[in-house]
Amino acid sequence: EISTRDWSSDVCSSDLDLYTYFYIRSLRLLNPKGVHVFICSNSWLDVDYGHWMQKFLLERCTLDSIYDSQAIRSFSEADVNTIISIIFPDKRITDYKIKFVNLKSNFGDFAYSENISGISTSDETIVTDSYRAFCISRSELIIQGCKSSLDETTTFVDGVFTGDKWGTKYLRSPDVYHKLVLEHPTDFLSVGELAEVKYGTKTGINE
Q: Exposed (0-12), middle (13-18) or buried (19+): which is 109, by Cβ within 10 Å?
């Protein structure tokens, strides 16, 4: 059973955006054979308060895909950027691919059967003139969000999942980043692995 009680103690309520609770509550109410589809703010993909929700979705549900359009806002009057998330309430036992789809047009122009079918039936990254669908396994997302490796069952090691920048890395990054970094991760090092990274001295003269 999906419950909010296991998670309410993990994060102070003041650190959360209210909509994150709607994800958990609606998944709990959903028919086990249903599909959870939200149009929502994209901030939880990158900010600290969204990391617990990343962990929740990877651990308790089947996160199928996330769609983002860089062409147009879903709500012209709202000062937020939105994504569409598709989640199944049941948890798959075996590993699976999650799709991060960056649309080069608005959602309405994209919503043709051949586009949806092509993405849903493929476990490989697809790049076309209309969209880029980046596929990554659940286990790899867990590893990327953890400070240490996982055991053979790809379950979480308590206290090490710190989250990742899903929106920045998998949705909004340019094609060259995908081609170089994501397809050849062992060929790159972070700056932190080469030197100590710290803030420089600040003047405090903000004016």
A: middle
Do 65 and 101 meet the contact criterion of CB atoms below 8 Å apart?
A: yes
d(CA 142, CA 150): 8
The residue with tokens 């959870």 is 36
Q: Are 87 and 61 a contacting pair, CB within 8 Å?
A: yes
Within 10 angstroms of residue 32's Cβ, the number of other Cβ atoms is 7
Please give the structure tokens belonging to residue 202: 């600040």
125 SS3 class: coil
**Contact indicator for 17, 34 with CB cutoff of 8 Å:** no
Q: Two tokens at 47?
A: 């900010």
Q: How far apart are CA 164 and CA 11, in angstroms?
A: 16
Q: What is the value of pTM for the model shown?
A: 0.75
Burial class of residue 161, CB neighbours in 10 A (0-12, 13-18, 19+): buried
Beta strand 97-103 pairing with 62-69: parallel
The Cα 36–Cα 168 span in angstroms is 23
Coil, strand or helix at 88: strand
Q: Please identify every stretch of the chain with a pLDDT value under 50, giving residue numbers as ranges.
A: 1-5, 7-14, 148-154, 159
Query: Which strand ranges, in their side-by-side order, compose the sheet holding 82-88?
Result: 36-41, 82-88, 62-69, 97-103, 131-137, 126-127
